Amino acid sequence: MSQLKPHDSSGLSDFGYKQSLSTGTIGKFASFAAGVSYISILTSVFQLFYFGYGTGGPAYWWTWVLVFAGQLMVALCFAELAGRYPIAGAVYNWAKQLASKTTSWMAGWLMLIASIVTIGAVALSLQITMPQIWQGFQMVGDGSGPYDFAVNGVLLATILVTFTTLVNAFGVKLLTRLNSIGVFVELFAAVFLVLALAWHVVRGPGVVFDTQGIGKGQPLGYFGAFIIAAMASGYAMYGFDTASSLGEETKDPKKTAPRAIIRAVTASFVLGGAVLLAALLAAPDLSDPKLGEADGGLQHIVLSVLGDPFGKAFLICVVVAITVCALAVHAAAIRMMFAMARDNNLPFSRQLARVHPVRKTPTVAAITTGVLAIIPLLLNIGQPAIFTILSSIGIVLIYLAYLLVTAPMLRNRFLKKWPLADNGAETGFSLGKWGFIVNLIAVVWGAAMTVNLIWPRPEIYNSVPPFEWYFQWGGVMFVGFVVAVGLLLYRLRIRHRTGVLEEHAAAVLASADVVADEDDQLDPAMV
Q: What would the mean pLDDT of 458-477 be, rounded to a whole number?
């Protein structure tokens, strides 16, 4: 168990590192934009509306409220941690302060794999939107072939991942500029879309209580369908920790990052919930089967209500949102890879932790992440249902990674080791007397949603033919495989050489016998 200690505000040297990344580049709005773009209101609600509506009907709207309430508790815990530890690879470094080395490594490993999978899943969502803007974007066949939809999705996704790789490799200034512009467009479009749909409402808000008879005759009734539909909302509200993961490149991060985390999740809930509600009120026909199909969904409602010119203009904004979402997820994955690599906690750590001397960004990590993100996309070619499976697996891994922070944090509250005594240390956010109850809800919520999302139900993991047991159990097997490989890799190999690489160690630590040999290093950051 790591011994917790307060840190002053002197900078990265408190954590055993010297500044390698671009410092003070990200301002308040850019930090907020990083969290918002990862959550990405338009990406998430347009991407999986069809799934939520198809499995839960109009009443699935309440899953948005439920997921927000649970994730807000997690975000508040993270804000408290970000107020003390605004470091790259936020979840990994937070767990390092709260738990054992094995726990912290697993938190980073799960978050890294989840982020790489999520980049591909986000990029695949272009296929749901772009052909509805212009049929010319369906470059493979006409969409009627058994694999036209899937292969074209992989092609569009690969192009997007290539773009995000180049932008992230070029430097954080370009990234934040594009990200901030994209988030501004997304927020403006979301507000305008709510107003436009509200102008065309054809029913009252009572529609959110309409279950359409779903769940009748089933053991759990509508509740069983509701918790399946919750995946659509669960997919949206995570990634708010990105604001802290970019902390080393942020101005006044101990104050900026906590506020950005809370504002990002709250703004996403308000605007995303309003978009979903307005769409349900304005949809011409709630019995239209296209609402529950991947090539229809919310895009179909927008085009039906607003017509081609305005409707397609909004879908273009959705494409912008998907692009900046992929940029943000990619950026977060790079910071996680860099943070673990500079602790010599990954294979080829020296290469992955290398920072470009001019652009001040981990270029090798950016390219590696992009290549790894494209590989899972190829699975989509032979099995179109892999999109939903990838989305589900990404969510499960992230919820597990979050639990490896909130659960040790709760344990430390029990042991009176958290919150830390200030002793003059600067902290940007505190939950005060509400800390225990907020933390407890965050842990219970995270555990419940993890079980719910990993449960091997055909509606999530094998919704279209061919119906095979290994597809249905794909989530359990893949998550189990990732966990097992991670534990074996760390326990048998990584832990024997872990320690801050000499080129990244703070000067005071470098003089305190920080060893350069990758196979025999102490870890001065894990005190």
A: 78
Residue 238 lies in a domain: yes
Given the structure tokens 């239209």, which residue do they identify? 288
Helix (H, G, I), strand (E, B) or coil at 26: strand
CB 162, CB 126: distance < 8 Å: no
Query: Would you give the distance in Å from CA 103 to the centre of its chain?
Result: 20
Nearest 10 degrees: Cα torsion 94, 99, 102, 104: -10
* Positive/negative CA dihedral, 495, 501, 506, 512: positive
CATH code (residue 393):
1.20.1740.10
Q: Is the model more confident about 504 or about 2?
A: 504
Count: domains in the chain: 1
The DSSP letter of residue 145 is S
C-alpha closest to that of 509 among 17, 85, 12, 4 = 17
**What would you report as the CA-atom Rg of the chain, rounded to the nearest whole angstrom?**
22
Q: Is residue 520 part of a domain?
A: no
Q: What's the token pair of residue 267? A: 């703004």
Helical residues (DSSP H) of 138-212, grouped into ranges? 148-170, 172-198
* SS3 at position 17: strand
CA 225 and chain centroid, separation: 24
**Contact (CB, 8 A) for 12 and 506:** yes
Q: Rounded to whole angstroms, what are the CA distances from 53 to 14, 290, 391?
A: 49, 10, 16
Task: Quickly count: other Cβ atoms within 10 Å of residue 309's Cβ.
Answer: 7
Per the domain annotation, does 266 fall within a domain? yes
Q: Domain of 29? A: 12-510
Phi, psi of 250 (to 5 degrees): -110, 145
Q: pTM above the 0.85 mark?
A: yes
Residue 475 lies in a domain: yes
On the CB side of 464, CA atoms within 13 Å amount to 15
**Which residues make Cβ contacts (< 8 Å) with residue 202, sequence separation at least 6?**
281, 282, 283, 284
Alpha-carbon distance 23 to 297, whole Å? Answer: 42
- pLDDT, one tens digit per residue, over 349-391 is 999 999 988 888 999 999 999 999 998 887 766 665 666 676 7
